Amino acid sequence: MNKEIVLHYKILAKIGEGGMGVVYKAEDTKLKRTVALKFPPPELMKDKEAKERFVQEAQAAAALDHPNICTVYEINESEDQTYIAMAYVEGHSLKEKMKTRQLELDEALDITSQVAEGLRAAHKKGIIHRDIKPANIMLTEEGLAKIMDFGLAKLSWGVDLTKTATIMGTVAYMSPEQATGTEISHRTDIWSLGCILYEMLAGQRPFKSTHDQAAIYSILNEEPEPIASLRKDLPVGFEMILHACLQKDPRNRYRDMEALLSDLRSIDLEDRTQVLTAVHALEESPSIAILPFVNMSADPENEYFSDGLSEAILNSLTKIEDFKVVARTSAFSFKGKDVDIRDIGKQLDVNKVLEGSVQKAGNRLRITAQLINVSDGYHLWSERFDRNMDDVFAIQDEISLAIVDNLKIKLLKGEKTKLVKHHTNDPEAYNYYLKGRYFYNKRTEENVKRSVEYYEQALEKDPKFALAYAGLADTYATFGFYHWLPIEEAGSKAKEFALKGLEVDDSVGETHAAYANYIMWFEFKWAEAEKEYKKAIELSPSDVEARHMYAHVLECLGRFDEAIAEMGKALELEPLQINLNHCMGNILFFSGDYNGAIEMFQKTIEMDPSFPLQYFWLGRVFLQAGALQKAIEIFEQGTEFPTVNANVLGGLGLAYALADREKDAMEKIDQLEKLSKEKYVDATPFAYIYMGLGNIDKTFEYLEKGFEIGDMYLFYLPIDPVFKELHDDPRFKALLKKMDL
């Protein structure tokens, strides 16, 4: 570049050059500050994909605001030249520092901790750097570490900045999954940071070679030279951290930057025998998936029993703290499929699997169960039970306790009691309850109605069966949520059964969750709902639905970081459930993390392209991000299904209105009115379109109607950017007051 002035920037000096651009030191003549301007090579900008990648680098970095990440001010163009303006960091790179001398232990610890803090912030926003290396870490004169160049970041747009299976990054610090071109996660940055820590301590790279292919071979197949043999003054804590960072299988590394930071903060530079908490937890963190037991009975109707037995064991194990038990939907997604145990373990991120079979004939049972180690397929425990139906509770207890015993799980005070607790001692009541759960999990109107019959029969047999009351409360709440019953009737029944369940046994997490669902959905008592969800989670730490719904409470209250963390825990337990992935996208959208939201919604579309609601939310993200035409295309995709979704119509009408296509927007209102004559339709789709058309009075008319008919989308009213300009309107404030928001 030969120019001395670019818009309001005065070029002072060239300070760096790399594959993704040239960087200049410049003066911002408007704001009187020194900045760095990064220009991509002109030949690259002729490539549409490369230009998009450069722009996405800026978007990635601009989404981050953290002292350990270089601040991006703007992206702009001048005479067809695209550039990024960012903070100018006075100092030198870590690469330059390591050329001069071997780092002291406290220096290496401080720099690693600062970089980990910055990456933790990026990962929370759904952004993976994936090119962490010494040249991309700047050190100021004050000792502040700044992460530079998110140009190779895997943004949460659902599409890599690089093509699928393309190896990108600097080979010496590349994770095994990058080297093989396979799916990466935030744990790839943990690997790279481990490589840097090793180099700072040892004065050499952990995987070194004269050429890239040999280095890749070393990364995939060899172990680094033991750090203790290269540096004698090293506390064992560093060895343990490096061991956990440089595991070739990403599942065996630190689970996240928070865990790594915990150990970095705990290092005692004088202690040669220290055992670190997070590493220790890595080696002892048991996790399990309970696969649905196979129904071996002659009668296929007995499938409810084999499914129910699996779910009962699963639910009992969720009572144990710090024991990851993958939830029902994800575990049951492998039902009837011939999938290798190792693949199941990889997809669900667990190290153990329980599988089995059930043969039921009259009152006789034959149950087999096998606990399998995922890594090698070895059977840790197996047993066959030939018993009567009356012994089903004892069998469940034996299986659950065998799992705990074989995984060497140390039960906390009171956990064994919760593990073997029977909510009923009546086998017939239990049998009816299992049938109720079986049909409720199918989630169609007809099947949910059938579940009510079975729950009621369970309570006829045992009126003190708290789980059956919780089941009934959930079914009626579901009737209200989907408007399969009038909202008042559904709410009244949900409240009645939830309170009865608490009265019978308030030590059951499911009863607290059922009551929380009622008071959130029907009474808008957010503080009370939060209290009940927290109690449910305390009683059942692996209760996915309680965590899921608690995340929505936090979301509606605008506490997005907490909501993301809670939904993240739910997804860890239930990674394959479409609704949870969708709901995480929902939270990310309202929090303003559009990159993360797009990734989640595109992921759910990949999981099930026939789910039209995903197109509504994905369109909403692009609409809010200013990509109006892209949003219209996505909304239009969502209208191509046989069953029309009212929200998609509302989103499309909103987009048409914002594109000044008033006639098309009004046509969507007509479609919604016709649809509402055939079935229940929420009021918010109408409100979206009228808001886009600028008809504020009509918007409020439908928002008020939504409150009257129990439109659950009104929960999002205070956080939905579509209605932002209404916030100062007294009608808006009055509506929020009615919902206690």
CATH domain fold name of the largest domain: Transferase(Phosphotransferase), domain 1
How many domains comprise the coordinates?
A: 5
Radius of gyration: 28 Å
- Describe the main β-sheet briefly: 6 strands, antiparallel
At CATH's second level, what is the architecture of the largest domain? Orthogonal Bundle
**pLDDT averaged over residues:** 84
Shape: globular
> What structural class results from the helix and strand content?
alpha+beta
Ranges where pLDDT stays below 50 over 5 or more residues in a row are 152-168
Helix content: 40-55%
State the total count of DSSP E strands: 15
Helix-strand blueprint:
Elements: E1 5-6, E2 9-18, E3 21-28, E4 33-39, H1 42-45, H2 48-62, E5 72-78, E6 81-87, E7 91-93, H3 94-100, H4 105-124, E8 137-140, E9 145-147, H5 176-179, H6 187-202, H7 212-221, H8 236-245, H9 257-266, H10 277-284, E10 287-290, E11 294-295, H11 303-317, E12 324-325, H12 328-332, H13 341-348, E13 352-361, E14 364-373, E15 379-388, H14 392-406, H15 415-419, H16 427-440, H17 445-461, H18 466-481, H19 487-504, H20 509-521, H21 526-539, H22 544-556, H23 560-573, H24 578-591, H25 594-607, H26 613-624, H27 628-638, H28 646-658, H29 662-676, H30 684-693, H31 696-709, H32 730-738
Parallel strand pairs: 10-12, 10-13, 11-13
Antiparallel strand pairs: 1-2, 2-3, 3-4, 4-6, 5-6, 7-8, 8-9, 13-14, 14-15
